[in-house]
Amino acid sequence: MATLPSYIQQAIQNRRSLAVELSDDLYAHPELPDQEFRSSQKIVDLLREAGYEVEYPYLGYPTGFRAVLDNGEGPSVGILTEYDALPGLGHACGHNVHGSMSVLAALALADLKNRFSGKVIVFGTPAEEEDGAKVGMAAQGAFDDLSAAIMFHSWSGGVSNADMDVLSLRCYIAQFTGAAAHAVAGPWKGHNALTAARKFLDLIDARRECFTPDIHINGVITDGGQYPNILPEKATVRLEIRTDSQAKLEQMDEVVRKCAQGACIALDCQVEFTKGFEDFHDMVRVPVLEQAVLELYDALNLPHGPVLPPNGSSDVGNVSYRCPTIQPELSICDTFHSLHTPQFREETIQPRAHQAIEDGGTILAALALRTLTDEAFRTSVRDSHQAAREAKLRE
Q1: Which of 56, 116, 354, 360 is deepest in the core (most CB within 10 A)?
Q2: What is the reported pTM?
Q3: 146 and 245 in contact (C-beta within 8 Å)?
Q4: Residue 111 pLDDT
Q5: What is the pLDDT at residue 1?
Q6: Is 79:151 a contact under the CB 8 Å cutoff?
């Protein structure tokens, strides 16, 4: 069983109140994706005061940042921080809580500089609930040189998990074009783009019986015309495709395009696909990191269960293809509440959630220190990640 040195626990205790205050303040002032100006500024101020050198804004994201604690030659560990909220629901995904866990770990590590050599890099990653800043940051190489990238995600039900598995995600805007005509006086002169869009969705439904359980394709018609007496010349479908691997995502992309072309051939229409946002990747899980988290759960006497099957997507997946990455799920309350609900949101300001901030910050700080100071562990993590990534790419 892993042990937690008293100096880690003391550093966490010294900074705990700041992290709890931050979490409750984010709850009281939720900000939408890419609009987290107040939230990001508060976190940046805390990190600067603790000795971090901060680049803010970062990589073209006005509310993103990169904060570096440069403590000499050595490896680099990244701590990922989220702080955006949901429209109409506030922090119903718990970003105020698990974002504050990351900040607490970063503050504690600044107080433990005499314990390691290397760099701690805190990334402020806005808009996880929308287009996912980690996607663009990963594409620009922000995480390429890290020995590990770590963060928690808030969870519920009293049982925590060693990692959060996620599905790849591709979003398309499919624009169907036909020819307008009077729906009664001369429909034979038109080509109904709305009908083509409807048949496109019907064909996808016809393929569902052949999908593996991880495949999810969901679409809505966002534009189907203006008046029923006019055959629509334009119709638009917003579509999301989810799978458990990048290779399978490309296979389903081909299926979707065939369904669209089939509908267009039948209705004498055309279709054009554009991406709604850049792809979210599935998760490259690192067994060595997951085992390390389980040992730290045991050290804190936190109940834990197996990693759950993926049932959503996150931009953390893009980070996991660039460096060893982990996002455990830490329970903040004993009652189970689905994420993105008012019930879960209200749990984020309760004493149990405040204790979870301490527990999560402790685990992140301990995991970061082990990565920075234990070369054999770093090598094992690197090899575990490389094997898992290669397996993903072969699927």
Answers
A1: 360
A2: 0.93
A3: no
A4: 98
A5: 52
A6: yes
